[in-house]
């Protein structure tokens, strides 16, 4: 028993070394994903079929395939093409880390853009009409009315996506990335103690999720102040 | 621009929603300072008509000329027309994420390019006029319906419009709040604002309107002074309508 405790303690310390990598994967790919999501969203709501259609196809492809398969395609598949090996993207795609970021952000962009679109569609059209009637231009309406309100509406669903991304980062361990899961798998291979190690790993992810939930809860509260009749602080 | 011509001219205006014709050959001229009340059964095209005036709806036929500018597909700057035309909606449509003061200041800054300090002064001045300056720092959701609608009127007035459109401004209000909104509108009328109001408040129509227009099935059926409108309605459709709204 004490042996197990010592093993768990020891391996948790080792796996926490990968925390930085896990958070890097999460934050970089979510950040890039958000930018991509906004671009896809603008294409979707542009009202122009030649922008809407490619965005729709893109979203369909990335939502319709498992993220692990996407990671494998990018990591194992792309290097087979010479023009990719010759391209400026090769330094990124040569390594598991770069491939993982690319796969995760392309995926997150597809999901997030649909979340944002839901938020945009839920904004009361009357508000945009009121802004039009005041003489506000389309970009002004987008920036000052649509964006803040749609952001608030999208936030609960986005926090879900963000947490889901945290867990998807563990897939990077399949292509040599030494994130927390990657380190955990290495330890398991050395110690043959999968039960202790993976259970500890699960608990670390749960603790991270707890903090992410709380942070989003706090942001939600701040952005929703104006929806409550009383208690404006 | 042109002081002698009617401020708003609508000539043979038509509007379709798919197969359904919402406006049929509408002819209407509104002079500066005139107060028009439009009434009629629901679905008669009243709202569509005034929404065509600031091009929230695009008309499909005929001409609409606002202060010398014709509204067409090629119009370069519809916002230049819109900032001269204030509008108040049935559902208030205050921006929920901004305080009352910000609601009044936003378009002044963005559209009129009014400096912040000046915009704030103008906003407070109009909040005083609608008698709720003490609500300036609250959010719309914290106000009653009547207060919200008065803010919406103030917000439109902050743009110093030349004409005000009211689209059933009291229809979403509880009965005890209707008067506070009508009072503000009556004051505005006395000050000489050009107004077009879609409303079923017949007391307001009688005391404020220069002309009352009755619409049914997308047509202007009758136009008359309030006196004739209420005492000698011409058409059978208007007589029926009056009977229906005055029964209870």
What does this protein structure show overall?
The complex is a heterodimer of chains A (233) and B (248). Chain A is mostly helical and 233 residues long. Helices cover 79% and strands 0% of the residues of chain A. Chain A is built from 11 helices and no strands. Chain A has helices spanning 2-16, 19-44, 49-63, 67-77, 82-85, 90-93, 96-121, 125-133, 138-168, 180-191, 194-223. In chain A, α4 (67-77) crosses α7 (96-121) and α7 (96-121) crosses α9. The longest helix of chain A has 31 residues, at 138-168. Chain A is flat and about 70 Å long. Chain A starts with a helix and ends in a 10-residue tail after the last helix. With 248 residues, chain B is α/β, with parallel strands linked by helices. Chain B is 37% helix and 24% strand. In chain B, the strands form 2 sheets. Chain B has a 6-stranded mixed β-sheet with strand order 6-7-8-3-9-10, with helices on both faces. A 4-stranded antiparallel β-sheet of chain B has the order 2-1-4-5, with helices on one face. In chain B, β7, α6 and β8 form a beta-alpha-beta unit. The N and C termini of chain B lie far apart (46 Å). In chain B, 47% of the residues are buried. The model of chain B has no long low-confidence stretch (mean pLDDT 92). The interface between A and B is medium-sized, with 25 and 30 residues.
List keywords for this structure.
heterodimer, A: 233 residues, mainly alpha, 79% helix, B: 248 residues, alpha/beta, four-stranded antiparallel sheet, 37% helix, globular
Order of helices and strands of chain A: HHHHHHHHHHH
Class from helix and strand fractions of chain B: alpha/beta
Q: What is the strand tally of chain A?
A: 0
- Average pLDDT confidence of chain B is 92
Radius of gyration of chain B: 18 Å
What overall form of chain A do the CA principal axes indicate?
Answer: flat
Beta strand count of chain B: 10
Structural class of chain A: mainly alpha
The largest pleated sheet of chain A is described as:
none
Q: What would the average pLDDT of chain A be, to the nearest integer?
A: 92
């Amino acid at each position: 028993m004490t042996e197990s405790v010592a093993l768990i303690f020891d391996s948790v310390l080792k796996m926490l070394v990968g925390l930085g990598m896990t958070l890097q994967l999460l934050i970089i790919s979510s950040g890039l994903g958000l930018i991509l999501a906004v671009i896809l969203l603008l294409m979707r709501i542009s009202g122009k079929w030649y922008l809407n259609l490619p965005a729709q196809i893109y979203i369909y492809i990335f939502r319709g395939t498992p993220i692990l398969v996407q990671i494998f395609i990018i990591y194992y598949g792309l290097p087979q093409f010479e023009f990719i090996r010759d391209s400026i993207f090769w330094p990124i795609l040569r390594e598991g880390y770069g491939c993982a970021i690319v796969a995760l952000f392309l995926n997150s962009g597809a999901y997030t853009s649909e979340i944002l679109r839901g938020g945009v569609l839920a904004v009361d059209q009357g508000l945009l009409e009121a802004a039009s009637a005041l003489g506000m231009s389309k970009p002004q309406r987008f920036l000052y009315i649509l964006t803040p309100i749609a952001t608030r509406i999208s936030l609960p669903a986005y926090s879900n996506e963000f947490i889901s991304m945290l867990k998807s980062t563990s897939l990077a361990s399949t292509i040599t990335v030494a994130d927390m899961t990657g380190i955990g798998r290495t330890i398991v291979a050395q110690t043959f103690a999968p039960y202790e190690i993976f259970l500890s790993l699960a608990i670390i992810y749960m603790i991270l999720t707890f903090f992410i939930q709380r942070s989003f809860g706090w942001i939600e509260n701040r952005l929703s102040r104006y929806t409550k009749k009383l208690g404006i602080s | 621009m042109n002081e002698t011509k009617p401020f708003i001219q609508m000539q043979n205006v038509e509007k379709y929603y798919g197969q359904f014709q919402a406006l049929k050959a509408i002819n209407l001229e509104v002079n500066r300072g005139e107060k028009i009340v439009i009434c009629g059964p629901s679905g008669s095209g009243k709202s569509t008509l005034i929404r065509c005036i600031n091009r929230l709806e695009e008309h499909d036929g005929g001409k609409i000329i606002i202060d010398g500018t014709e509204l067409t597909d090629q119009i370069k700057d519809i916002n230049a027309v819109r900032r001269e035309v204030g509008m108040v909606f049935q559902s208030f449509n205050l921006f929920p994420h901004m305080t009352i003061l910000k609601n009044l200041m936003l378009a002044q800054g963005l559209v009129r390019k009014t400096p912040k300090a000046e915009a704030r002064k103008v906003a407070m001045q109009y909040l005083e006029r609608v008698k709720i300056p003490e609500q300036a720092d609250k959010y719309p959701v914290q106000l009653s319906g009547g207060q919200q609608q008065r803010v919406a009127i103030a917000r439109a007035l902050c743009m110093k419009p030349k004409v005000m459109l009211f689209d059933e401004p009291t229809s979403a209000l509880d009965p005890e709040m209707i008067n506070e909104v009508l009072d503000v509108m009556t004051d505005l009328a006395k000050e000489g604002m050009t107004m077009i109001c879609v409303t079923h408040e017949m007391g307001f129509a009688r005391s404020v309107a220069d002309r009352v227009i009755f619409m049914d099935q997308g047509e202007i059926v009758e136009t008359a002074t309030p006196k004739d409108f209420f005492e000698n309605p011409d058409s059978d459709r208007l007589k029926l309508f009056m009977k229906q709204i005055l029964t209870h």
